[in-house]
Design goal:
The complex is a heterodimer of chains A (556) and B (229). With 556 residues, chain A is mainly alpha-helical. Chain A is built from 27 helices and two strands. Chain A has a two-stranded antiparallel sheet. In chain A, β1 and β2 form a beta hairpin. The N and C termini of chain A lie far apart (70 Å). The N terminus of chain A is likely disordered. Chain B is an alpha/beta fold and 229 residues long. Chain B contains eight helices and nine strands. In chain B, β6, α6 and β7 form a beta-alpha-beta unit. The mean pLDDT of chain B is 89. Classes of the chains: A mainly alpha (556), B alpha/beta (229). Chains A and B meet through α1 and α6 of A and α2 and α3 of B.
Chain lengths: 556, 229
Amino acid sequence: MSVHASGAGRSLPAWVPGGPPSDFDPVAATHRLRRDRRRAQRPDRWSDFYITFFGAVILLAYLSGVVQFLAQGMRASAAGSLVREGIAVVPGADAGSALLLLALLGVASLLSRMGPVAVDRAQGLWWFSLPVDRVPMLARQLRNRLVWVFIVGAVLWLPLGLSAGTASYNGFSGPPLGELAAGSFTLGAEFVLVGLLVAAGQILHLRPMVGRGLRVLGGLIVLAYAVDAILRAAGTARLLTPGIWAGLPSAWPSTGNWAIPAALLLVALVGWAVVRPLLGRIPTSELLEAGGISGHAGNSLALLDARSLLGSFAHGPRRRSHVRDPWPRMIPARFTGAPVGALLRAEALVLLRTGPVWGRLVISLALLAGAVTARGGGTAVVLCVAIAVSATLAGQAAGVAAAEAARVPGLDALLPLDAKSARKAHGLLPAIVLSAWGALAGAILGWALVGPGAPGQWILLIGIGVFCGIGVAGGSLRLAYRPELDWDAVLQRQMFGRGALPLIGHAVHGPELMLIAVVPWALAVLGAAIPAVLLVLAVGLGVGAWFAGTYRPRPA
Amino acid sequence: MDTQDAPLLTARELVAGYGEFEVCGPLDLVFDRGDALGIVGLNAAGKSTLLRTLIGRQPPLAGTASVLGVFTDDTSHIHRRMISAVFDEDAFFDSLTVEEHLQLIASGHEVPDGQEAVERELEFFELTTARHALPGALSSGQRRRLLLAAGMIRPSELLVLDEPEQRLDPPMRAKLAVRLRARIDDGGAVLLVTHDAILLTTVVDHCLIVDEGLRFATAAEGAAAIGGA
């Protein structure tokens, strides 16, 4: 008697209930059993679809507007560049290609955390205990995910592709529809191929290595971009880096050539034919782990909870069960006798062990460096947007430990600290980390805007950065302790057409303080010279924002 | 080729754990039809980890564990036909009722007279009045009963139970113990992790005590270990 899966070819005892897998289709059976209830819920489902669809369209419209605004700003750079001569050396198309390549890696990383082949706990428990072939179940799930991934990729290209056009009072003149559609199909197909590659990694039991590999690759791309910028600034770019970015897959969508998506989709079909029959090899534990992350992410998205969404991706595959690192010895508990000291130590350990925090901090700095070295990135609009995005990214990352404390309020109650002091204590570590981040970011801006020729101005920008960082820490605390979205308020206001207000209020709770804190930077960037009074403003806004963010309102 | 003698479960130098952290082992074990073994130990001793590793739910850190000398993980449908395992996994389809969950398992395992089997389990686990209830409306104990019913409604060569007494009231624990003993007397194999001394001594004659190391003992010695004696 042959064996179906592992150990194929070995004989089994005669009493073993062998034979082929059962023909029973658990997915169909489950749907059949709950069909009546789903029918009753149909109006709700249509309503959800309606809201989701129009929400996505509105979001896309806003995104298109922002991208268009930035693109116009970059094109107007010749006259309005604020960075020094010889700094903005990387062509905008190359910078865009590098950014899109990082985005593709980000998609691969997200997909590897969510599977892409995954089952939720109920499916794992009730379907996987049945003697059925898993492959059709998993293939159906993977196929659905790949279709969605294709749609997301294709739609995401629309604002990027449209940014090549120009908007004016006379209307919009964009790329031909055929080119735009080809770009859309190309990015969609690239997303699908990324998904298939990650699924192949799951089959080969390489999921943890895929995550590490992607991080290394991301680091290499940032490094390659930095090397490219330095070589170009030194005038040797043509010798050493002849068009490396233009040939990468991230540059393919902008070619508008239909042969590329056709070839990619063909490769995807071949990839699907290879991957599909092997899906049964993925261990149940891995499917369940990925399903848990997918479920958490899906619920967070449904509740529009960005903090929880990021939290769901924070732990990659193979969550550590034990930790043996040098940090506890480097920050000995005996030196942190007081409650605030103990809290600081605990938060420092959390931060040191949360790899994505440092990754996001590095990305936020790389974003600033990338903007100033890209041609067209030195305009006021692009620099201000880069500062804002960089600050919110860093602020969110540095507040991870405080967010954990906010999620489990009982932890604070274990210490002899009143709630107000505990909140302030949670703001200390983000302030330390973000003031260092602000100094580095200020150094990057100073190098690009004033350079070694004006050391006083450079130091002033670093000083402003330190206090901006402290203010951003206040915003990160406010974000960490953001109250849950009041859906009742949303629904009540929805009747009067004002449902968006509480949603927006929830979304900006925290980031608004971060943006206020970086106003001195924006003013420094916009002005011809940097007056010392800006440092005073930075101190006022930074310290004020920190106190505002760490203020604990009286419970209602 | 006559492999009638292939044991149900074999472990050789098996070490269970997570990552690089060894929880327990090494263990050598040959487990066959009609065998019954309890596993006892304090919290975090590694009982459940050992159980999962033994039946291929998680890879061993060292050594081997196989079902029928062939299957080292649970991806094969034959493995799933052979072994019914109930761990503390509180997961349900939100929109399926108690009865529909059991129907799903009965149909999937091609249980003859599936509906009759569903009725029997509903009655045994005293879920008849809750048959149309959705999981969200069940008490914690009822959810546990439903999981046990799902594990017992289907045919299997080996029944694996991880602390089945959890969240069950004493009368149900006693009923379950009697049923498990009858199953063993009829030639069924049972692996049972428990903290309940009475359940242990009623169901099995031998057990594995997981403490500093692993040692085989009688059920009475296992019960004494549970009691801290």
